[in-house]
Amino acid sequence: MKVLVAVKRVIDYNVKVRVKPDNTGVDLANVKMAMNPFCEIAVEEAVRLKEKGVASEIVVVSIGPKAAQEQIRTALALGADRGIHVETDEEVQSLEAAKLLKAVVEKEEPKLVILGKQSIDSDNNQTGQMLAALTGMGQGTFASEVVVEGDKVNVTREVDGGLMTVSLNLPAVVTTDLRLNEPRYASLPNIMKAKKKPLDNMSPADLGVDVAPRLSTLKVEAPAARQAGVKVADVAELVDKLKNEAKVI
Amino acid sequence: MSILVIAEHDNSSLKQATLNVVAAAKAIGGDIDVLVAGENCGAVAEAAAKAEGVNKVLVADNAAYGHFLGENLGELVAEVGKGYSHVLAAAGTTGKDFMPRVAALLDVAQVSDIMRVESDDTFVRPIYAGNAIATVKSSDSIKVITVRPTAFDPVAAEGGSASVEQLDVVKDAGLSSFVKEELAQSDRPDLASAGIVISGGRGMQNGENFKMLENVADLLGAAVGASRAAVDAGFVPNDMQVGQTGKIVAPQLYIAVGISGAIQHLAGMSDSKVIVAINKDEEAPIFQVADYGLVADLFEAVPQLEEELKKVL
């Protein structure tokens, strides 16, 4: 079974985000970039499926600038077999990303597509579901467990009230939540080997997709800062303040 | 303009989040219809018809929608939504699941998790885990939008008298089926809409110690939440997680116990009216957002809090 994993290059999880003074966006100059954490979980899940003998080949795809090759190489070092880079310097929004991935799905015909549930930059939580709709596949979103059985996959999903399990016909789309697995680190020998793994490069035009954005960002601002309040000496003072000053109990 | 709001419910009762989404629809302006899709959900339709500002309630009552599978809801809402200028749903796990399918089927972009309405095509939403706030404008003919419920004051649940219309549109995509559900059982209020929330973090050390928080919660009529660290450590289940990737809460009072205040957690609770932090590390970032900070060992402070509350409540 072939598994396709989509990964995104984003600002590193640990970097403090700063809004540009002219309010046009977030300052990404000279900022450390990395694979989106939910995408790391997607790669790990695919690698585990291969280790269990369920997946036979893992293809990793990323859409983005030339530098996104770094994230594809990271995925290859973690165990993916080959990469596809859809190279563009344009901002690609969720619907257009889903259309590009649909074109890749049509070429590769994977049985399972695994994506992160959202990227930590735009926080949209859309691409996997849109891809599933465009390709006519079922979707197991916010997955905390993925079990392939014959021509079906059972996905346990993290939902507001707890957990919900659905059964999907294959091929299907799965999007990962935090507790699906704990991603491994790439070993140095695997990082060296990854450099020799095949990586195809193509453009959105090669895939016949117009990536012009539908949403325009008018401005980006820093959130309203909350002022630190006071320290109280003990629990009695705390309860007194809550009752008589804040009047919330 | 005409706006379609997709009701959030469990087939027996209408969730309050729907009233928050209707409020967002009112801010956009125009006729507001509510779609109730479910199975044996007549009571929900009746409740939706009483909500303030609702023009018409459309009901799609069929087994295909009973478990709110995204594949089936996506097709239904795309079909019904074609006739509207805006389609809105709450940004809970159900809305997040099916709404992008609706957008893709209509070939339009989706605007996720809006916090404010600037005009009928311009909306404010958080990005980078709430570390930046973007104002975005949609050029699509149909605006597909998920709404952060806590950012809008709910419309009144009573007083409206909308007409109720049955739809006989059955969309079963045949791609997915429901297997099982493990839902948390609790007599406490729903975390996302509770007036008071008390949350525990890694400092709680284990799941059993959350009992201390539950005792305080029961005195206050509060919901109990947790930080990602506490959920990842296996102390408590995922549905208790407050934060950017968990639940977004904005209660009157938020009490953070043994929570350091990672930015992802702050993104989920910093709109609370009053924040209390109890932590033994006085350098913990949670104190930078807390109205009242208590530097103390939680294992002494929380039982004391319970005793003090018993005196005054």
TrEMBL record, chain A:
<dbReference type="InterPro" id="IPR014730">
    <property type="entry name" value="ETF_a/b_N"/>
</dbReference>
<protein>
    <recommendedName>
        <fullName>Electron transfer flavoprotein subunit beta</fullName>
    </recommendedName>
</protein>
<dbReference type="GO" id="GO:0009055">
    <property type="term" value="F:electron transfer activity"/>
</dbReference>
<dbReference type="InterPro" id="IPR014729">
    <property type="entry name" value="Rossmann-like_a/b/a_fold"/>
</dbReference>
<dbReference type="Pfam" id="PF01012">
    <property type="entry name" value="ETF"/>
</dbReference>
<comment type="function">
    <text>The electron transfer flavoprotein serves as a specific electron acceptor for other dehydrogenases. It transfers the electrons to the main respiratory chain via ETF-ubiquinone oxidoreductase (ETF dehydrogenase).</text>
</comment>
<comment type="subunit">
    <text>Heterodimer of an alpha and a beta subunit.</text>
</comment>
<keyword id="KW-0249">Electron transport</keyword>
<feature type="domain" description="Electron transfer flavoprotein alpha/beta-subunit N-terminal">
    <location>
        <begin position="23"/>
        <end position="211"/>
    </location>
</feature>
<keyword id="KW-0813">Transport</keyword>
<dbReference type="InterPro" id="IPR012255">
    <property type="entry name" value="ETF_b"/>
</dbReference>
<comment type="similarity">
    <text>Belongs to the ETF beta-subunit/FixA family.</text>
</comment>
<dbReference type="GO" id="GO:0046395">
    <property type="term" value="P:carboxylic acid catabolic process"/>
</dbReference>
<dbReference type="InterPro" id="IPR033948">
    <property type="entry name" value="ETF_beta_N"/>
</dbReference>
From TrEMBL, chain B:
<comment type="function">
    <text>The electron transfer flavoprotein serves as a specific electron acceptor for other dehydrogenases. It transfers the electrons to the main respiratory chain via ETF-ubiquinone oxidoreductase (ETF dehydrogenase).</text>
</comment>
<dbReference type="InterPro" id="IPR029035">
    <property type="entry name" value="DHS-like_NAD/FAD-binding_dom"/>
</dbReference>
<keyword id="KW-0249">Electron transport</keyword>
<feature type="binding site">
    <location>
        <begin position="241"/>
        <end position="245"/>
    </location>
    <ligand>
        <name>FAD</name>
    </ligand>
</feature>
<dbReference type="InterPro" id="IPR018206">
    <property type="entry name" value="ETF_asu_C_CS"/>
</dbReference>
<dbReference type="GO" id="GO:0033539">
    <property type="term" value="P:fatty acid beta-oxidation using acyl-CoA dehydrogenase"/>
</dbReference>
<dbReference type="Pfam" id="PF01012">
    <property type="entry name" value="ETF"/>
</dbReference>
<feature type="binding site">
    <location>
        <position position="279"/>
    </location>
    <ligand>
        <name>FAD</name>
    </ligand>
</feature>
<comment type="similarity">
    <text>Belongs to the ETF alpha-subunit/FixB family.</text>
</comment>
<feature type="binding site">
    <location>
        <begin position="258"/>
        <end position="265"/>
    </location>
    <ligand>
        <name>FAD</name>
    </ligand>
</feature>
<feature type="binding site">
    <location>
        <begin position="227"/>
        <end position="228"/>
    </location>
    <ligand>
        <name>FAD</name>
    </ligand>
</feature>
<dbReference type="InterPro" id="IPR014729">
    <property type="entry name" value="Rossmann-like_a/b/a_fold"/>
</dbReference>
<dbReference type="Pfam" id="PF00766">
    <property type="entry name" value="ETF_alpha"/>
</dbReference>
<dbReference type="GO" id="GO:0050660">
    <property type="term" value="F:flavin adenine dinucleotide binding"/>
</dbReference>
<comment type="subunit">
    <text>Heterodimer of an alpha and a beta subunit.</text>
</comment>
<feature type="domain" description="Electron transfer flavoprotein alpha/beta-subunit N-terminal">
    <location>
        <begin position="3"/>
        <end position="182"/>
    </location>
</feature>
<keyword id="KW-0813">Transport</keyword>
<keyword id="KW-0274">FAD</keyword>
<dbReference type="InterPro" id="IPR033947">
    <property type="entry name" value="ETF_alpha_N"/>
</dbReference>
<dbReference type="InterPro" id="IPR014730">
    <property type="entry name" value="ETF_a/b_N"/>
</dbReference>
<feature type="binding site">
    <location>
        <position position="202"/>
    </location>
    <ligand>
        <name>FAD</name>
    </ligand>
</feature>
<dbReference type="GO" id="GO:0009055">
    <property type="term" value="F:electron transfer activity"/>
</dbReference>
